[in-house]
Amino acid sequence: MHRKAVSHLKRVDPILARVIERVGACRYEARTDGTHFDAVARSIVYQQLSGSAAHTIYSRMVALHGGEPPTPAQLLATADEALRGVGLSRQKIAYLKDLAARAASGEVPIETLHELSDADVIDALTRVKGVGRWTAQMFLMFRLGRENVLPGLDLGIRKGIQRAYRMRALPSPARIEKLGRAWSPYCSIASWYLWRLLDVDGVAGTPAVKRQGATPRQRAKRNGRVSKRSAR
Fold it and tell me: In sequence order, which residues have a C-beta less than 8 Å from that of residue 1 and are 6 or more positions away?
């Protein structure tokens, strides 16, 4: 998968080529099930929570709406106290309701975002309260599958670059942008490899959304389920 992108990255950046060899095959892929609205709503629910806690709250929100992710109209019609009852904070309820209102009014063309340019998607999504540039970039990468996104302010990207290029300090946005010019038009693939480098090396702080492609043993190890025999 992504052979053309991997070949390009290995050709233009010898250091990234070594990262690619260490990490292995690229398993970056977009999650295309469900609706764009649900993808953004899910990202709001998951903000600043562990994966398990966020999954529980999100599942309760879905159950509250009959077992299906709510539409903008359904979410707007749901009482705040009912949403509080599934574990959502008042701030996140406000963010979700703002997303739903902008989607319902058409201010954010939520279900046709895939027709827009990367810049226009970011502009549309960042109108929503609680959705910043990073969240919009994750939507581009992991929902729309856009291959040339470089979230330069992401701590995992900065740590990955620092580790791969053996820098004393975290790289500046200008340095990351310079590297990205060589990686283009496959910055998303480069980003995936940098996140996975941290995962392979056991560096903390890699969000679950970026951990695609881990082996069953790696997933078990992160969850503390590797037996002594399998760890040998």
Answer: 25, 26, 27, 28, 29
Task: Please check whether residue 9 is in contact with residue 17, taking contact to mean a CB–CB distance below 8 angstroms.
Answer: yes
Domains identified in the chain and CATH numbers: 3-28+150-222 (1.10.1670.40), 36-142 (1.10.340.30)
Q: Is the CB of residue 69 less than 8 Å from the CB of residue 62? A: yes
How far apart are alpha carbons 172 and 154 in whole angstroms?
Answer: 11
pLDDT digit string (tens) for 43-53?
999 998 888 99
Find all residues with CB under 8 Å of 229, minimum gap 6, and list them. Answer: none
Residues of the chain with pLDDT below 70 are 203-232
Yes or no: say if 13 and 191 are a contact pair by the CB < 8 Å rule.
Answer: no
